[in-house]
Amino acid sequence: MLTTIMDENGGMEMQDAPAQNWSQNLDLGFIGGTPLLLLFLIVPGFIWGGVFYILPAAFAFLLVPILDAMLPQSQDTQHKEDLSPAVHRALSFMPVFYTFLFLLLFAIQVLKLGALSPVEVGFAILSFAAMGTVLTAAGHELIHKRQSLLKAIGEIPFVLFGYWHFPVAHIKNHHALVATEKDNHAPDVGDTYWHYLITSYPEAVRFSYDQIVRRQKTQRAEILGRARICFYVVVPLAALAVCFQIAGWTGVIFYCCSAILSLMIAEAAFYLQHYGLGRDEDEQVTPRLIWDSYHRFSNYLIFMVPRHADHHLNWQKSYYLLRSYDDSQRLPVGYPTLVAMAFIPPLFFATMNKLVPDSPALKSPQPSHS
């Protein structure tokens, strides 16, 4: 069956209707369902305890890389006009649903902490760190929306985890200045993840504070900006106090460790997205300035964040509509695998430096991306 589809240049062309393609329907199911599966995998831990608490972490960092390696990469693109209104609404709502379901499961876990052994608490921390990383991906999707309510919901993960600066720094610094010297998320070749972490984080905090407070044009706006910062500081402290009240120091350890690990994993993803790629400020943003990944389950798991080139070129496009580019840089493995490598710089450099264009470590021609 043929359908008329608008191409990227605004022209019309006849193509097989993606809505009638069973593989693309299956793709849509995985795009919407995989993040929820990650959340539901914590339920066996709630019921049976013990090793079942590790299931979400094992799924994210063991099973997903295996599936990425086993299955062919996907460059299929969904078209909004080929989705039913119900499917479009469901996929659009999924990051919101994920956010509130995560908060519910997190609250349940805090209530159960008192009955857990130290090993079970450790397993729960690892799993909620994995789930929390996907939560930041959901928040990232929502802060790019036009609707104020969705933007506010998108800020919840970052405020809750004490990462309040991210929405402002991400949009006004990273997207505006992507891959330039002024971009906080553009490490040079040879910069380790750990160096990137201790330098980009305070720079992003300083930038966001300046944007919210110091660059306001009126005294009233500056006062409101300071009040906003105070709110961002109070929320995680209040959450920490609640965790302590319910589960004592175990609650504090659980909250802090799961939040810190989530953000460290998220920062590792930011680190690799533009690693070694740069441009002058007057140079146009192109897919070649961004590392893309089309590994199936990595994309399914984190709201298609690995299709990063189209996100920068069309930053308000919904995650499930992001397209692939033949001329983007390609990551050799999926996000979970490469994020783990980033924590071990020699392993990361051995994998990535030879792929960076114009890098001194480039020892062989760039592979074709066609």
Task: Name the average pLDDT.
Answer: 89
Quaternary structure type: single chain
Shape: globular
Q: Output the strand order for the largest sheet.
A: 1-2
DSSP strand count = 4
Order of helices and strands: EEHHHHHHHHHEHHEHH
Distance between the termini: 27 Å
Strand-pairing-aware structural class:
mainly alpha
Q: Work out the count of structural domains.
A: 1
Low-pLDDT residue intervals, each spanning 5 or more residues: 1-20, 359-370
Number of helices: 13
Strand content: under 5%
Please estimate the helix content: 55-70%
The largest pleated sheet is described as:
2 strands, antiparallel
Question: Rg to the nearest angstrom?
Answer: 21 Å
What would you say this structure looks like, in words?
By secondary structure, this protein is mostly helical. It has one domain (2-355). The protein has helices at residues 22-40, 43-48, 55-70, 85-112, 118-143, 148-160, 166-175, 193-214, 219-273, 296-301, 308-313, 335-342, 345-352, and strands spanning 2-6, 12-16, 291-292, 329-330.
